[in-house]
Amino acid sequence: MARSLLITRISELVTNALRDSDAIAAISPDNSAAAGGPGGFATLSNAALVIEGDRVAWTGPASRAPAADAVVDAGGRTVLPGFVDSHAHLVFAGERGAEFAARMAGSPYAAGGIRSTVAATRAAPDGVLRGGLRRLAAEMLGQGTTTFECKSGYGLTVRDEARSVALAAEVTPEVTYLGAHVVPAEMSAADYVSLVCGEMLDACAQHSRWVDVFCERGAFSADEARAVLSAGISRGLRPRVHANQLGYGPGVSVAVEMGAASADHCTFVSDADVDALASSGTVATLLPGAEFGTRQPYPDARRLLSAGVTVALATDCNPGSSYTSSMPFCIALAVRDMRMTTSEAVWSATAGGAAALRRSDVGWLGPGARADLIVLDAPSHAYLAYRPGVPLIQAVYQSGRRASLALE
Ligand SMILES: [Zn+2]
Questions:
Q1: Residues whose CB is less than 8 angstroms from the CB of residue 305 and which lie 6 or more positions away in sequence, other chains included
Q2: Domain that residue 46 falls in
Q3: Which pLDDT tens digit goes with each residue over 4-14?
Q4: Residues 90 and 166 reside in one and the same domain
Q5: Assessment of whether the complete model's pTM goes beyond 0.90
Q6: Rounded distance, CA 348 to CA 272, Å?
Q7: Ligand 1 midpoint to CA 89 (Å)
Q8: Same domain, 88 and 161
Q9: Burial class (CB in 10 A: 0-12, 13-18, 19+), 185
């Protein structure tokens, strides 16, 4: 038997689990077996949770908690699932602080800013890229992120994309091949798309779970995006799309058409885009750090939620448009500036991110879920937005083990 750990005296336990009645109806119509699973936003008050090995074994009222090998007194704090950051660009060298400062002083954002990071990334030894990646991963963990996705896309040569996905695979299973981030200056778009769909894909597929494309004016067209995604799918990768960040366009419709797990950004979407998302399994992943960092209008989260679209929140952590690794910061932006409720924002940053990565083991806390959780030094989840910028994360458990939060 794995050792068990009881965490008790939890003021609010965010479970995002199916309620018993829902679970019974969903799984056992004859009520013969109760079973949990990921569901909508849900909480338990005065709660406790038992971990066995790397899994959650039990949740319920503290007064009915079973005995365990060890006990942690949460002291009236909140416990919630570890954040699932489903969109991040962490393999790069250099930084663009001066570009940010200039933009805040009035210069517009252009997709071409990516190229300065490409030059620095190509020139960097593996050790520099690995060091930066591990520093950001540690930063994320310290802010409660226990699952994250990581994209390539600053190499744009076969060698540099291949080493980017290989390095990303050292720190997460959710690796995304984003050769189609931007066309490098030295190539034509047609030649580059051929490379991305051919030799570069061959070199990257073994380390990648996902294929992504920046479908936007100035980046890749709808047809080019289809070609890139189809090539990836044919190699067993699953599609996701950078869509409709800088203006209206075909990104969302291509994402839905190709069965993408997620259309990311969704800042400028038409009614048809909203309808397409609502009637598909494609999650809309909103990245408010990018709008913050580029001073663009935020996506209309209320419109998407009202239409029944599944919404995720992620950081888009990258050195150009959104150099934050903080899910609490994104939650605060979503609540304050995108008019999401605190519960919607926390769900989108946990279960929503899991949906965007097609993961059913994370983003919720109930029997069978992976024991990834945050102990928040606050009486409720609302404090993530109510006390923005304050380090409220007291402890993080990843696969049942308390993580060391010291930065390397
Ligand atoms: Zn991105």
A1: 311, 340, 344
A2: 4-81+364-402
A3: 999 999 999 99
A4: yes
A5: yes
A6: 23
A7: 6
A8: yes
A9: exposed
